[in-house]
Amino acid sequence: MSEGDLAAFTHLGPTVRDALSERGFATPTAPQQLAIPPLSAGEHTLVIAPTGSGKTETAMLPVFDHLLADDVDDENADGGPPEGFGALYITPLRALNRDMRERLEWWGDYLGLDVDVRHGDTTQYQRGKQAENPPDVLVTTPETVQAMLTGERLREALADLSHVVIDEVHELAASKRGAQLAIGLERLRDLAGGFQRIGLSATVGDPTEVGQFLTGGRPCEIREIDVGSNVDVTVTRPEITAEDKRLAGELMTEADTASHVRLIRNLVAENESTLIFVNTRQTAEALGSRFTELELPIGVHHGSLSKEARIEVEDRFKSGELDGLLCTSSMELGIDVGRVDHVIQYKSPRQVTRLLQRIGRAGHRQDEVSRGTIVTTRPDDTFEALSIARRARDGEVEPAAIHEGSLDVVANQLPGIVQSRGDTHLRDAYNTVTRAYPFRDVPEETVREVVSELHRNRIVWFDEGEDRLETTGGTWQYVYSNLSMIPDEETYEVHDIASGGQIGTLDERFVVNFAQPGEVFIQRGEMWRIAEIDDEEGRVKVSPIEDPAGEVPSWIGQEIPVPAAVAGEVGEIRAVAEPQLSAGADAAAVGRELTHRYPGDERTLTEACEQLERQVEAEAPMPTADRLVLERRGRTVVLNAPFGHTANETLGRVLSSLLGQQSGSSVGLETDPYRIELEVPSSVATSDVLGILEGTDPDHVETIVELGLKNSDALAFRLAQVSAKFGALKRWQGNGSGRLSNERLLAALEDTPMYQESIREVFHEDLDVERASAVLEGIQSGEIELVTHRGRTPVGQGGRSSGGKELLAPENADASVINTVRERIQNDRIILLCTHCKEWKSKTKVRRVSEQPECGNCGSTRIAALNPWADEVVDAVRASEKDEEQETMTERAYRSASLVQSHGKQAVIAMAARGVGPHNAAQIINRLREDEAEFYRDILSKEREYARTQSFWD
């Protein structure tokens, strides 16, 4: 190793260099060579380097060195560490806190520096010790920093702060947690003066922007190692073999799915330790159940499992007891699970950032290449994965979508500022907030509006005459109840009824819409039957079963959006393939050609290109980044548009909104990164769709979409969360308003900062007005070709990749949703009880109920349709003497029987729906409607109303 290579360590003092020798650090890693010089000089620095390349030591060695220096600061001229906290090491996950402390403790012990951890689970005793005798380095979370800023002794200790390290800074930069932390850093600066800020990340698409986020717009050194050059990714789609057909029978599944299981199993067997990343918890559980059936040593790890369950599988994987770990983003951020040889990504990772984070987990040795395999399932998936793998190799990472000017974050931080400082002039609070990079452009008048709302809600007191903010009786409680910007959503603990141990958690919305005694679901890769639901305790009690037929929990969570650049490259691949296929080349020849540019095997690329070959053979135009294809069959209209999730969602909303206005009917909408699918009334002509695309002013896109949002569940959902951060919901309910429907909520808040922020958030996270407007401009200028095709095309039918979009789904569901509702209700079980003889009872599936149910004992048609767990209602009907509660149950059963006698099976179907009793069922039945689909649409509307009421207000 040359002197130049070793030069980085010469910037460190002798004590730290001795520690390096003791620890076996003979030579600096690449990021250490680049970053230690500016870090030692005290410069704000953003370090971007692959996972496992020593970023933590890169940041902390100069920090340790500084804390040991003789001239730490003027107030501590006698030498040695400061009396208060010297450095904060902030991570986005508590699990990372644990890992970081273990990594840093050795250095602290050797150097004589205290290293400790503090987060929400830290005991009161430990917190007291830290306040009395602050450690030199504290490992913590963004939310705990918020709590520390309000404690008197902790604030005194924070006044000595000289360094803040933020790990996984890219993760925070793109979230409201990060926006909150940005203000928190400026509040720390008010206490401690200027301190050094250090950001660490494996992937950053826009280093300058993230650097500005880190420093609050101050100068920032960027030290970056090319992450893509250290990554070796292969894209493959498994070929169905004879073994897969045998395996399919064993697993009671399709051969295609069995081929995926077999390939993953073989890849795990070829390596010592493998992480298998999937995009959703549902997929993790579904695959986990397959591996459990095959008795393979592969665990499941995701955020809905209990902390104990997660730590258990982490330890089993680290010890070698498990060969593989099925995981979601819970494993993306560097939790220490020991050495990882290989990473499998099941289905496209959707974004370059995610691929680099995930594949980067493999090969934790200096200068070692991280190897991984993307297993794809269909042509869209394959082309998308190829684009992402190519872009990862070439370092084309997506920019971080920083939340600019989040008003609920401002509302969250102002009470904290007042609580910690006491009476504060508005201008002083405003200056602190707007020094944070995401809030640099927020006008003072907007902050004044936020303050006025907080004043109305008695969170702070605002003296307008003197422009002063003061605490109220509610300030302290608000601050400590709102340390996090993560939305509050109720969860139910899942407990094994036999052992009493906790298995994991379920979102309340899942419990409301699916969970019932007797139902089956998958968690931790195992099958469970629900025995009891305790709403007061928030617990679901379950028992394990071996029945392979079950339903995977439907956790709330939107699909990872595919960026426009990735979708556009898929369009470019099609554009390259089309002339070759039109000239007579076959899919194999085109696939071979693509292997020169993309990291996929020839067979996989050939299979994907067969879809494009069928498109050409059908004499259908090829959708590309420069050509949109509008195809139609019956009421289904599909615009093939490879512009990514958010742009297509925006265009789809424009189309569905304007077509709905023109026709006076609802228009169903389904989008994915490559298609916009509409279910239109028969009165809508294809020329109407073309007219909107060719005639809508691009400058009007935002207005059209916002008008469409005004009465949507999407906006109401965000509004409920945002207004909670302003303390607004509590005030209205305290005034006797009680539960607020979505309509009343939207109407009450329309001209408030909460409404403004909710609109901003929907546009920021789910929509892309700028790109959608650019598409309309391109169509109207002729830069983008728009062609039509009668009937469906192979490419147009290749989608249906949506999932987890219930928050943004239009209220008027399309045909596919209605079919799903119909199928689910027909397969639900129901109790039929004769209210005449009271003896006959039958539990059966709805689909098996006759058109006019009769008692099998006495022949009566007065049959009550009851939920499958309503045995207490049966007992109430049969009881000779009844208490008040039993009388109510009996009355409900008789009303149900009256409906069934009058309307037969139609009444049974209505009452089998979630939360639809005899009263709502009568309303549904008595409506005049054109077809059966409208009947199920009305049922779905009542179910949604029930789910909304339960999940928001119970």
From TrEMBL:
Location of the Helicase C-terminal domain: 259-408
UniProt superkingdom: Archaea
Record has Ribosomal protein as a keyword: no
Gene3D superfamilies for this protein: P-loop containing nucleotide triphosphate hydrolases
Species in which this protein is naturally found: Natronolimnohabitans innermongolicus JCM 12255
Record-annotated Helicase ATP-binding domain positions: 36-222
Name of the protein described by the UniProt record: DEAD/H associated domain protein
One GO biological process term: DNA repair
CDD domains: DEXHc_LHR-like
SMART domains: DEXDc (SM00487), HELICc (SM00490)
Protein family membership: Belongs to the Lhr helicase family. Lhr-Core subfamily.
Keywords (A to Z) from UniProt: ATP-binding, DNA damage, DNA repair, DNA-binding, Helicase, Hydrolase, Isomerase, Nucleotide-binding
